[in-house]
Design brief:
single chain, about 140 residues, mainly alpha, 5 helices
Length: about 140
């Protein structure tokens, strides 16, 4: 008895729908992140009212199924790319690693001190890469 291998075929329209959905969800996530940042940086009651009014309008648009109205105010700022977020997150670790490589080569730094500083800087660079969430 021969078994048939079932192959999953994806049509071009399905790929386009997935791409649109991924773009929409990425924009929605960026919109939520912006509101989160805005809420944490509120200084006055007016700023708080503006953020909550924007959130309320977004929730009402989401409930009504009006994706265009939901995303209307998010078009002002393009979402940040993965590369930019990765670079922003790892920049301090890269600087620390570069210093770890350069400090032992400086004149006047003996071998033992250079090795100790190198290890300390590399450990600090590794710790800087850990996420700041509660799971860390």
């Amino acid at each position: 008895m021969a078994s048939k291998a079932v192959r999953r075929r994806t049509s071009v329209t399905e790929l386009a729908a997935r791409r649109r959905a991924r773009r929409f969800h990425t924009s929605l996530a960026e919109l939520v992140r912006r509101h989160d940042r805005a809420l944490t940086q509120v200084r006055t009651a007016g700023e708080y009212d503006a953020v909550t009014a924007s959130l309320r309008a977004g929730v009402l648009a989401l409930v009504a199924g009006d994706a265009e109205a939901l995303m209307r105010h998010s078009a002002a700022e393009p979402p940040t790319s993965r590369t930019a977020r990765l670079l922003r997150r790892s920049a301090s670790s890269l600087v620390l690693a570069a210093c770890a490589l350069a400090i032992p080569l400086l004149p006047g730094v003996d071998r033992a001190t250079g090795a100790g500083v190198r290890i300390l800087l590399l450990m600090t660079a590794a710790l800087a890469l850990t996420p700041a969430g509660s799971s860390a």
